[in-house]
Specification:
Radius of gyration: 18 Å
Number of helices: 8
Helix content: over 70%
Largest sheet: none
Structural class: mainly alpha
Mean pLDDT: 86
Order of helices and strands: HHHHHHHH
Shape: extended
Number of strands: 0
Strand content: under 5%
Number of domains: 1
């Protein structure tokens, strides 16, 4: 059950609305500290591969079954290493004192850190700039009663 929650939390890579106590914070810090850039890249690849299954984006990306299986195995290996070796003490304490949901919140934080690294890539940043070109900030400022520039 905890591993399913872990997958959902990481796939969302969004802030968890429930309270994350000090043990979950310690676990999250350990997860971030214990992963390499390559590990974080694998996490982002896995999230992308899972999202590519959704009908709304399926036609925009092609991820083969073999690629999905390979990245899922890589991420499973990372999770296994983190939970049973690198961060075993933090994981035990978090689950003992704050419950299994701490696994979700801690891995969600790791997912956010991994995604942030992805968005720092110059190519991704340039792509993100397309949104600001298309967005009418003047209209928003007028709607909110703010001074226009």
């Amino acid at each position: 059950m905890a591993l399913r929650w872990l997958a959902v939390g990481l796939a969302l890579a969004a802030p968890i609305s429930s309270y994350a106590g000090p043990y979950a914070d310690d676990m999250a810090k350990c997860l971030v500290r214990s992963t390499t850039s390559e590990d974080k890249t694998a996490l982002v690849q896995w999230m992308f591969a899972m999202m590519s299954l959704h009908p709304a984006v399926r036609t925009m990306a092609t991820v083969s079954g073999e690629q999905r299986t390979a990245v899922s195995q890589r991420v499973a290996d990372i999770f296994q290493e983190l939970l049973t070796k690198s961060c075993v003490n933090e994981t035990k304490d978090a689950v003992k004192y704050e419950g299994e949901v701490t696994i979700v919140s801690s891995f969600s934080m790791l997912g956010q850190v991994a995604a942030r690294e992805l968005f720092q890539d110059p190519n991704v940043a340039a792509g993100l700039a397309e949104l600001s070109k298309a967005f009418d900030a003047t209209s928003l400022r007028k709607t909110l009663g703010l001074a226009t520039q």
